[in-house]
Write a structure and sequence with these properties.
By secondary structure, the protein is mainly α. It has a domain at about 15-50. It is built from three helices and no strands.
Length: about 50
């Protein structure tokens, strides 16, 4: 049998690398932060922050 209370993953296992800084922005949750990280990819490919 399974528990009736849904289990929530810990913040470390649910948070992709790089989401921490993005999640500090107002209105950005875990899902949207993960979308940003997936879309941006490697930030080092940008020559300047303005191009990010």
């Amino acid at each position: 049998m399974t528990s009736s209370t849904p289990r929530r993953p810990s913040s470390t296992s649910a948070s992709p690398t790089g989401c921490g800084a993005i999640r500090r922005l107002p209105g950005i949750g875990l899902v949207l932060a993960a979308v940003f990280v997936a879309e941006i990819g490697d930030v080092h490919r940008f020559t300047a922050a303005e191009k990010l």
